[in-house]
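Can anyone check this?
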Amino acid sequence: MSYTINEENVERQQLLAEILNPVAIEILKKVGPLPGSRCLDLGCGQGNTTRMLAGALTPRECIGLDYDANLIAYASAQSNPPGLHFQQGSAMELPFDDASFDVVFTRYLLVHLPDPELAAREMKRVLKPGGRAVAYEPDFTHEFAEPESFGITQMTKIWRGMFPQPTIGRRLPGIFGALGMNVETGTFLGVETGLGPYRRIYRMTLEAMKEGILGRGIETEAEYNAHLAELRRLEEDPKPMVVKFPDFWVIATN
């Protein structure tokens, strides 16, 4: 099924980049800059992460790869710097030669995949000796608001019902370590006080996933409507502190 390019989905992905790019840039400072290098971004989506990767590492070439041809067309049509381009393909069977990249980056991709270990093996395969795989993934353990909001705590149930790898974050060190790679790891726990992008992206994401939530029986229609109403209320209420689920990252050296 192709990803729908519409105003809401574009805004949601831009909000996600606003939240996660500053963290990713700090992680990438441990890797580069790497002028003259060749970098790959897996699951590039609308191209936000690929442009961030190119800006942080200043490579000679940076390729964004996504399975969805619609997303590749959208990303390619944006304002992209020289040396950055996009290509359709699968993270489970990368269309690249062995040992052809200095850095392979992925964010919020493995959580979607039926076999993240296979994708990790493919990342290692296309890395040069000494090259680095950088993976950044969520772990849907717990999230909350203070004062409490069921709109936030109920999201843990949504994530775990919608994604095939809901605890992939904590598994990253083991997955890449099992490939014989040297692994550095860390975590990020996002906190929002006052009105900000967390509140809005929670509401927008619940709306985007409505069909899947109801189709899988994760919530009844009445439960979904109450959940959405609570997130809409929270989006206008600056008083609660919102704490999102933890993210884990690894830098795995080949």
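Reply from J.R.: I decoded it. The CA atoms of residues 182 and 238 lie 43 Å apart.
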